[in-house]
């Protein structure tokens, strides 16, 4: 549940729960000190007491002078803040919970006119309210009066206390409900934030292996997932940076080694010419040819380094156009055949007799094919080199395989042949030549085409380089989304 939903439900609970509890408490307790309720009960009690007094007056009037009888009439009245009061010849003999000194001057005179409608509606202008006045004579001719009196002061006091308690209960319910609901909502939020804080401290201190797990499926949980993704990317970035640093050191070492060799060779032959070692036209021509060849190798190496650097920095633009891949490969085969025949090799194209349109940069693709074929020539071995180019038409792509019968690549080296400056000959034998980045350039170019490239090889049996190109059908670029221009 989202934080917004939980907060909304919490706010609803803060309103509904206290209202329900307040209603229940008010219904069960407040009526006990409700003046209207007390008045109603006293009216009932008044009628009951009047009947008892009338009945005793008819049967045994002197019983009205019995204190025990009067106490019996008074039973239960204290719960209604009332009491029976007996006055005889102007003296109060029984007053229950009433204060005789305060009550005496308020009681009506014997046989005075009593109007009960004037009582209780006076809103407690007097501390005592009279509900009943019964005047009678006993056998001793004494003047007696029985009163049913309400102690309004006690009722008002308890009403005030009840109101204060009710307010305290309401405030307590509101505070408790708010605290419980707030704690239940924010407990998980704070726990999630604390976990996120701990994770940030771990990552800040360099512990990129600390896993950030979301505590709940809410906004902070989404933040934790984003934080975890950031951690993984940061870790991968640092690994990549370390790899780049390692590659940089390897690059400097390899460039120093590969450039030094032809330069030293050129320098040596020039020194031979200067010192007069080339003392015949034949030697002179041989020295000059060697210098020219080494210069060409050096130029090729520098050009490849420059191209790879631009590809790595994404500074090379690609001009994608639809072409017939079969016709294009035929052209590449014809262009390569002459050089291969001079080395005793042969290259053939195997395909179905149908046009297949692909979307490529023709110039860059030719570089890929030349680099792969050039790699086959370098590692051709002693037997005549045979290279076959096979085309397989698939649903949305074209699979091209360039296969040779050369020395092959060991399974140990195979996963690394597309890395920059990687050579299967660890001694970097200069007789093989090359910069060591031909296949790395091929990989860069094919990936820029939205395809992929891989190899399969077996030692002393040959190597197959596979790469995939996207088809172009009626203006629809099947893999166009993968192109990074």
TrEMBL record:
It is a multi-pass membrane protein. It comes from the Bacteria. Residues 187-239 form the HAMP domain. This is histidine kinase. Residues 254-473 form the Histidine kinase domain. It is found in: Cell membrane. The keyword Ion transport does not apply. The keyword ATP-binding applies. It comes from Desulforamulus aquiferis. The chain crosses the membrane at residues 7-26, 164-186. One of its GO terms (molecular function) is ATP binding. SMART domains: HAMP (SM00304), HATPase_c (SM00387), HisKA (SM00388). Its EC number is 2.7.13.3. Signal peptide: none annotated. Keywords: ATP-binding, Cell membrane, Kinase, Membrane, Nucleotide-binding, Phosphoprotein, Transferase, Transmembrane, Transmembrane helix, Two-component regulatory system. The lineage of its organism: Bacteria, Bacillati, Bacillota, Clostridia, Eubacteriales. It catalyses: ATP + protein L-histidine = ADP + protein N-phospho-L-histidine. GO terms for cellular component: plasma membrane.
